[in-house]
Amino acid sequence: MSKHGLNSYISNTQALNANTVAKPTDKLHSIFGPQNHLSNNIDTSLFTSVPRVCRERKKNVFDNFTLYWENDTFGGTDSNYTNGIQLSWSTPYFANNQKDGHLPGWSYPIINRLPFVKKQTAQRALSLSLGSMMFTPEDTRTSELIEEDRPYAGYLYFGVGFNSILSNRKDTWQFNVGVVGPASLSQETQDFAHDLVGSPRAQGWDNQLQNEPAIEAVCETKWRVLYSQNHNGFGYDLIPHIGGRIGNVTIY
């Protein structure tokens, strides 16, 4: 082979290698996106697929965010469970292969032992959440203690979620640690929000539950049984779910 022919062969080979993209072992069709939440999360991601090459996986490990907000103002009330907000940050879903190292090493022993999530054929993801919940009694105009109604309470928490998806089913375990009481800053947060929109402040926050450490485990399963493709930015899906929670905050 001539020197010119050898150089041409090398150039073509390099171009071919540069344009070769590894195919994912499996494409994950998921409308679930990141994890879970206390309701347990209004997931907004419509489709998540396994990144195509290892370098892309490394770069995109933490680029999925979900923000949900629940507030009783949408129902024209301001009592009981009055506000909830959660920001979640999730990895993409990866095949169950610890050797790939796409998830933190400490997460695999946990995922591989959790009921439902430990399915070997499922895609896995890890999520982190920061959220708060607020509760007030029916009458927020009095500063007196109302013994026969729900007490004022705030809950601030940090959660780690372990998620798996197989076909149209998503399983999630989330473990939360946080604080109930004034340290949750629920009074300050609600006062700021009410001042911002011109609503009267709740007067009984001096009677809220006192500071107490909080810990809980949440398990949830969702099934995506119906989905409509987006048309001009609109679509719909049907996702029934079942779950439970245990800890010193809520049990059901």
UniProtKB/TrEMBL annotation:
InterPro entries: LpxR, Put_OMP_sf. This is Uncharacterized protein.
